[in-house]
Each structure stands twice: as structure tokens, then as C-alpha cells.
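Good morning,

Attaching, inline, the C-alpha cells for the sequence recovery test we're adding to the shared suite. The designed sequence is right after.
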């Protein structure tokens, strides 16, 4: 949480080959991420995937996030998201089932920092939801 900007800044990192497999299974086409053959509109596919698989509530109210972009680093892709106009924050409710359909043993680690307080949760196929209180 960036108190100065009143925004929730989110970074999601995923192995490139895993997200590629997920997108290929959903859309029945090759993605070849981080190559010259990557589809020009891959950000659209990423954003649609993330909207379906990651949701947030702030203090009990659902919020929408903006997709800022992505960055490749080795075999990982980082997605940058932002929720604007968060004037106060006591609780973050996270639902995350990224890659769970493709990889039943998938674990999604959530880490957060709000006003210097660190919280974390481990989400799995059985437990896809966590509430982090500050």
C-alpha cells in the first residue's frame, strides 16, 4: 500500500512457461512469450486472465485494478497492477487461483506490506482466499 499515492501496488510473478501453458490451453493458440513470435496483443490476454483469477476487496468492498504492464526477467514474468483511490486500508481480501486449473498442486504465496506491517498467506487449490488485516 502506497499511503502517499493512496494506491495498492501489486506485483505478481509467474514462470513464463506456466502462464504460457495456461493461455495456450484456454485460447488454443501458441503464445511463445518473450520471443519475437509473442502475439502483439499478449497484454490483453494477460489482463483478461488476471481479472478472472485474481480479485481484491479493500475493507470489504470489491475493487478493480488497472493493468500497468509486464516485464520479463529470465524465466519469470512480472505483472504490475494498481488499485487507485484507496484512502484507508484496514483489510485486504485476496482471492487468487492463478494456474490452479493447469497445475493442481499450484501454490500462490501472497505477501503484503501496509504501513510497515508485513503479512502473508499461502493459497492452494483447496484454499484460494485469504484476508490480511492491519
Amino acid at each position: 500500500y502506497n499511503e502517499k499515492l493512496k494506491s495498492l501496488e501489486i506485483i505478481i510473478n509467474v514462470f513464463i512457461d506456466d502462464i504460457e501453458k495456461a493461455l495456450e490451453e484456454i485460447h488454443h493458440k501458441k503464445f511463445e512469450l518473450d520471443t519475437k513470435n509473442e502475439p502483439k496483443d499478449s497484454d490483453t490476454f494477460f489482463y483478461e486472465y488476471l481479472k478472472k483469477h485474481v480479485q481484491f476487496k479493500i475493507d470489504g468492498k470489491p475493487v478493480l485494478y488497472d493493468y500497468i504492464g509486464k516485464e520479463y526477467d529470465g524465466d519469470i514474468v512480472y505483472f504490475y497492477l494498481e488499485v487507485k483511490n484507496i484512502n484507508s486500508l484496514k483489510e485486504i481480501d485476496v482471492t487468487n487461483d492463478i494456474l490452479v486449473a493447469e497445475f493442481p498442486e499450484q501454490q500462490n504465496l501472497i505477501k503484503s506490506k501496509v504501513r510497515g506491517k508485513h503479512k502473508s498467506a499461502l493459497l492452494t487449490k483447496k484454499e484460494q482466499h485469504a484476508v490480511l488485516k492491519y
